[in-house]
Please model this.
Amino acid sequence: MARRPFLALLAAALAVPLQPAAGAEVRVVAPSGTPYATIQAAVDASADGDVVLVRAGSYAAFHLVAKSVCVVAEQNATVSIAGAIRVRNCSSTVVLAGLDGTGGTGGVPFERNALAASDNAGALRVQNCFLFGSPTGPACDLRHGALVQDCPNVAIANSVLRGADAGVPFDQGSRGLLALRSSLAIHDATLLGGRGACVAIGYTAGDGGDGLRADQSDVFVARSEAHGGDGNNHTCVDGGNGGNGIEALGAAARVDFRQCTLTGGSGAPGNSPPACPCPGFLCCVICFLEGNPGSPWRASGGAQVTPLGGVARALTGPDVAREGTAVPLNCVGEPGDLVGLWIARAPAFVPSPAQHGVRLVAPAGVPSRLLILGSVPGSGVLQATLQLPDLPAGQQGDVWHLQSLHRAADGSSWMGGPLALVVLDGSI
Model:
C-alpha cells in the first residue's frame, strides 16, 4: 500500500513526452586533427546549448562568459586544464564534466583557483572533475579548489576539490570549496582544505584551510568527505589551528549533511615550553602555544549546521554516451528501495525535505519523465540501463538531466544525486 502513490506518479509521468531539444552542435577539441586545438576557441565559436567535446590532452585555461555551453571530456579520456576554469554571468545552464583542472599562476587572484564561478543566474553542474588550487602563489594568497560566488543553482557530484597547501611558512591554507552567497547540492564529493596559513597579527600562525566554507550560503551535502587542512608553524609564533571539515559563517548560512565523513586538521606545534638554542631571543623566554585541532564542523555568526539521519542515495553513470546505445547506471540505496529515474532537459534547484534532498531536475513547467528501474538488491546497488533513442535528424548533441528517486519500504521518498548525461550523434 505504501508504494501505490509512488507507482501512480511514475505511471503518470511516463505519459509526458520530454520537451523537444533545440538542434545543438558539437565542437570537438583535440591537440591536433580537429578544427579546435583549444577549449577557449571552441567555447568562443559555440552558441547557447552547444556541446564542447574534449579529447585527451593538456589544455590552457578557459572562460565561459554569458553563455550556456556543456564542456565535457570524451569518455575515458584524461583532460588536463592548466589554469582556472571561469564561469560568470551565465543566465542558463553550464555543465562541466570529466575535467582535471589546476589553478594557474597568473597575476589575477581568481585565476589561481581551479574553478571560479560567479554571478551565474543559471544552473551550474560539475561532475567527475578533479579541481586543485594552484600549487604556487604570492604569500597569503587564496588558491581554492573551487570558488562559487553569487550562484543560486549549483550541483557538484563525484568530484574532488582540493585547496592549495602552503608552499612557504607564510603561505595560505586554502579551502577545497568556498561558497559565498550561493545555493549548492554536493553529492559523492571529496573536499580537502590546504595546509598552513599566513602569520596573523599577534605572533600567531594562521589556520589550515576548511574542506568546505559556506559563507552566507545554503548547502546540502550527501555521501561526501570534507577534511580540514593542518595548521602551519613558524619559529617564534603560536602554532596555527587546524582547518574545519565544514565551516558555516553568517546568519544566512545553512549546511545540512547526511552520511558524510568530516574531520578537522591538526593544530601546529608552538614553542612550549620555551627552549634554547633557537633562532631569536624570544623563543628562549616566551611560551608560544600549540595550535588547536580543527572541528569536523563548526557554525558561527548565527549559521546553522545540521547532521541529518538516514542513508543517502546515489546515482552514478557516464558523462557521455552515443545515441541508440544502452547507458549503464548504478543506483545506490537501501535493499528493497524501489527506484525511479527522473529525466528532463532542464535542471532545477528545489530543496525537498519530504524527499530527503534537493530536486535537481525538471523545474516547474518543464516536461519530465520518471522511469521505473527496479528494486535495490541486497548488495545495496541496483545496476540498470537506460536505452537512448536516436537524436533527431540534424541534431549532433543533447544533454539529459537525470536524478534517481527512491521509495523505501516504509513509504518514505529519497532523492539520489544528479547526473548530466551528454548524448552525442553516433558519427562523432
About this structure: The longest helix spans residues 4-14. The chain has three helices and 36 strands. Helices lie at 4-14, 39-45, 282-285.
